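[stage:ingest] chain + small molecule (zinc ion)
[stage:ingest] validated
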Amino acid sequence: MQRVRREDTVLVLKGKDRGRSGAVRKVIPGEAKVIVTGINVVKRHMRPRGPQKPGGIIEREAPIAWANVALLCQACNKPTRVGFRMLSDGRKVRYCRKCDANLD
Ligand SMILES: [Zn+2]
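[stage:predict] done
[stage:export] tokens:
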């Protein structure tokens, strides 16, 4: 079960975008990384590849390690660590370790 998921809002703890927050656009489980909208933007120099892809310098978000972001809790609006627990109906959910709210 993943601590961070698509459409979560996370706060960046390390790197050049430290202190900024954004929505998770993609989770890369194999590399333990996430791509966050507007965070860790790098310039890539692309070669032209045919008429539909003219090349040039494009900006795109580079993946950032899970360890370098903290989930922003929707209930208490603070960066938090994520816990897991089982509900009485058997569902496993994430919860905020600061305010104890369920996150799923
Ligand atoms: Zn909370």
